[in-house]
Write a structure and sequence with these properties.
heterodimer, A: about 525 residues, alpha+beta, D-Maltodextrin-Binding Protein, domain 2, Dipeptide-binding Protein, domain 1, Dipeptide-binding Protein, domain 3, 3 domains, 9-stranded mixed beta sheet, 4-stranded antiparallel beta sheet, B: about 325 residues, mainly alpha, about 75% helix
Chain lengths: ~525, ~325
């Protein structure tokens, strides 16, 4: 018996020795690095993605953006505006301090009131968080708020005991969360080094070390995975996909993402600054002209030739995976004849001249897409001049409404069609915070009413019906915007890596494992 | 001498002031950083507040004035993006860039000058022609292409060197660790090649001119050994214009690192400045340009002082 014991002991010793010898490391080459280690500073995908390995919220979204319990194990919704969250016990922050209701209240207060918080808009509908006991928190929303849980997934929890009274600078340099990885080092522009959190409540993560390297140049990123200095990269340029697919030691992943690329049109000025028509009027005020543009763009060709097949032609505002998608709306086929007929009907048989503004460093192949749109529309007699510029200039210009027609994208973060409808389709209303990105100033009161009532509808099916009805008005009846396509997210990894891309494009190492060698 | 340096310092001050004004103005006109900093669904109230927090709510002159007031306290402002002092953000990245530039400069001087001399002495022979052909190639081939080809050969095909990133750092530099050196080789070679080619060409043409001078003939007539004639009398005289150019080139090298740093994901100021311009992070852009301008001025000062060492005929007035 004693002998067995000592044998067992030495086996265990050997095993631990093995483990320290072969620490499992995952090195990820990402297209853009984190902007800050403060989880509330920026609502920006790359930063959120990296920090999702360090911090956790009361609830989380799974790969398909369904709400799942995280730091809260269960919840109740006794009244439409009240949510009781039951918190998990025995959860530890990376510095050993325990997690309880005080941390949730502290974090909520900071995300909502800190002057530089990038998430204030996200939690604007949530009024307050109060501690009921050590492991129960009551949230109150201003109105019935069906998106409460999804928004709550943005509230990454900080440790009150450690952070209370600390400066912004200190907090940004000491990211301490409850997540699967703890922060070790950030060498700006070079790497972010994380280590497994041994006391993680879901169990110790598979990889011992996790390294994020910002490789902003796409050729550099591809070279890094080809030469093996990283294990996983995101955002493969479409022209390099074949090389990676043909590579024996690499694995290729794709997943339709959440981003819609679409066109907005000036719909509020009688004379638009960058359109020349025979009669001097703004033709985009006429629904038939807007529809002609939709029918006249050969999106299938754009997807095939510009996007190398890695995009899905869009017939509506959100992709299939998003709540609000309507299976009954299909994108109409490319039909130049019908487009010409519509133009003739609207009184523009010879078309007109228009300037299309586009960024050239924001979305995948953005400027080329705009050029392809111009080529398509030339065939129905509309002379489109493309004005491509860097994103820093582009967004300033369109926000001053110094444009008649522009190409832009929208990421359906959180997997709910409501965000785009609220920001880009609803009539502009700065007081109530609607239509901030509706620079074309599309406006239909019928849409506004339907959308607003959907915002307080707690019944999921009824809400879905309202969103679908609203979209049908904005898109099918009014042609308020012109959808082009949904981007497809592309990744490459070493053969041994077991990885399923997330719908939101985040890279969470806890969800990644490796085939044992 | 002291008078000369004080004069220079005064000029430097004026130059820096002008640079800060121009950069400030260009960045002011370039666009609104708040649009890029806030999430898409931010409210108008948030925009107004963010603008206030960043000090962007005044007119151009008000903003520039408050910048100057801060500057007089040694404060270059806070980065819009990183939320940290802009100077700190720049200085954090500067060692990585300087390390590349210094090593590339050393490499091109140590190889370029001897090759240039050999090419001049052997002008017209195959040795001279081969060196000049190489230098022609070095000048004509774009930096990013060389970088890409090096990565393709040494990382992707043969897996000898890491394709990107900076290695282990010891005392501000990665040139003191083996891992660091492995990461340094390709970026340094890429960055050095153009300068190397230029130095070869300059040395060669300077030497050819000097070698026809009477004092060289006289030195030969005195029966001095050939290497003393070439290096002692020839090179020493050919060096003067070369030092000026090398000085100016060092400044250019620091600016050139932008391309090299992008290819090799090198965490230096080149990448920082590109990102900062894209994010309209004005404090960082201004701080970067001021630091670089200061480096330029200091180098020029050193070059001027070096003249007197190399050529006693020159005296500072």
């Amino acid at each position: 018996m004693q002998r067995v014991g000592s044998l067992l002991g030495s086996v265990i010793l050997l095993l631990t020795f093995q483990i320290t010898l072969y620490a499992k490391i995952l090195t990820v080459g990402v297209a853009s690095g984190a902007l800050s280690m403060d989880p509330y500073a920026f609502e920006e995908l790359a930063t959120i993605s990296i920090l999702s390995n360090i911090f956790e919220a009361p609830v989380t979204l799974d790969r398909d953006l369904k709400v799942r319990p995280a730091l809260a194990s269960s919840w109740e919704n006794p009244k439409p505006t009240v949510w009781i969250m039951h918190l998990r016990k025995n959860v530890h922050f990376h510095n050993g301090s325990g997690f309880d209701a005080d941390d949730v209240v502290f974090s909520f207060d900071r995300i909502k009131h800190w002057a530089r918080s990038g998430f204030r808009g996200e939690v604007a509908m949530i009024e307050s968080a109060e501690k009921i006991d050590d492991y129960t928190v009551r949230f109150t929303t201003r109105k019935p708020f069906p998106l409460f849980l999804k928004k709550l997934s943005r509230l990454r929890i900080l440790d009150k005991e450690t952070l209370a009274g600390k400066t912004d600078d200190w907090i940004a340099n000491h990211p301490i969360g409850t997540g699967p990885y703890r922060f070790v080092e950030w060498r700006r522009g070079d790497r972010i080094v994380l280590k497994a959190h041994p006391k993680y409540w879901k169990g110790k993560p598979y990889f011992d070390d996790l390294i994020f390297k910002p490789l902003t140049d796409s050729a550099t990123r591809v070279a890094a995975i080809l030469s093996g200095i990283v294990d996983l990269i995101n955002r493969i340029p479409t022209m390099d996909t074949k090389r990676i697919r043909d590579h024996k030691e690499l694995r290729f992943f794709k997943r339709p993402g959440l981003r819609l690329i679409y066109l907005q049109m000036d719909q509020h000025r009688k004379h638009s600054p960058y359109i020349q028509t025979p009669d001097g009027k703004n033709p985009l005020l006429d629904r038939r002209v807007r529809q002609a543009l939709y029918y006249g763009i050969d999106e299938v060709a754009i997807v095939r030739y510009i996007m190398s097949g890695f995009a899905l032609p869009a017939g509506q505002l959100s992709p299939e995976a998003v709540y609000g998608y309507d299976p009954t709306i299909k994108r109409p086929d490319y039909d130049p004849q019908k487009a010409k007929a519509l133009l003739r009907e609207a009184g523009y048989p010879d078309g007109f001249t228009i300037l299309l503004d586009t960024p050239n460093n924001r979305y995948v192949n953005d400027a080329q897409i705009a050029e392809a749109v111009a080529v398509s529309l030339a065939k129905i007699g509309i002379h489109v001049k493309v004005n491509a510029m860097p994103k820093s200039r582009f967004f300033g210009q369109i926000s001053r409404l110094d444009t008649s027609f522009f190409l832009v994208g929208w990421e359906n973060v959180g997997g709910d069609a409501g965000s785009m409808m609220s920001s880009c389709i609803h009539s502009y209303d700065s007081k109530r915070g609607y239509g901030r990105y509706n620079y074309g100033r599309f406006s239909d009161p019928r849409f506004d009413r339907l959308f607003e009532s959907s915002q307080e509808e707690m019944d999921a099916d009824k809400r879905l019906a309202l969103l679908r009805k609203a979209q049908r008005i904005a898109l099918v009846e009014d042609q308020g915007v012109i959808p082009l396509h949904f981007q497809v997210d592309l990744y490459a990894a070493k053969q041994s890596i077991r990885f399923t891309p997330r719908l939101d494009g985040q890279i969470r190492a806890f969800e990644i494992t490796e085939e044992s060698p | 001498m002291l008078r000369f340096i004080l004069d220079r310092l005064f000029h430097t001050f004026l130059v820096l002031l002008a640079i800060s004004f121009i950069t400030f103005f260009i960045m002011y006109k370039a666009g609104d950083p708040v649009q890029l900093l806030l999430p898409p669904d931010a409210t108008q109230a948030q925009v107004v507040q963010m603008r206030h927090t960043l000090g962007l709510d005044g007119s151009f002159l008000t903003q520039y004035r408050s910048f100057l007031v801060q500057l007089s306290h040694g404060n270059l402002g806070t980065s819009f993006v990183y939320g940290e002092p802009a100077l700190k953000v720049v200085m954090e990245r500067l060692p990585a860039t300087l390390e590349l530039a210094v090593l590339a400069m050393l490499l091109s001087i140590l190889i370029g000058i001897p090759l240039g001399v050999i090419a001049a002495v052997n002008a017209g022979k195959w040795k001279g022609k081969a060196i000049m052909l190489f230098s022609l190639a070095g000048i004509s081939i774009p930096v990013f292409w060389i970088g890409m080809v090096l990565v393709l050969i040494f990382s992707v095909l043969f897996d000898l060197l890491p394709s990107s990133g900076r290695g282990e750092v010891y005392l501000f530099t990665s040139a003191l660790t083996w891992d660091g050196i492995r990461h340094l080789i390709m970026p340094v070679v890429t960055l050095a090649l153009f300068q190397l080619a230029r130095i070869i060409r300059l040395t060669q043409s300077g030497m050819r001119e000097v070698l026809t001078q009477d004092y060289i003939k006289f030195a030969r007539a005195r029966g001095l050994p050939e290497h003393k004639v070439v290096y002692g009398h020839g090179l020493r005289n050919a060096l003067i214009p070369l030092v000026t150019v090398i000085g100016l080139q060092f400044g250019q090298l620091i600016a050139f690192t932008i391309v090299t740093e992008t290819i090799f994901a090198w965490p230096g100021t080149g990448k920082l400045i590109i990102d900062s311009i894209q994010n309209l992070d004005r404090p960082v852009v201004v701080a970067y340009l001021l630091v670089i301008a200061l480096i330029f001025v200091v180098i020029n000062l050193i070059v001027d002082l070096l003249y007197t060492l190399i050529d006693p005929r020159m005296r500072l007035v």
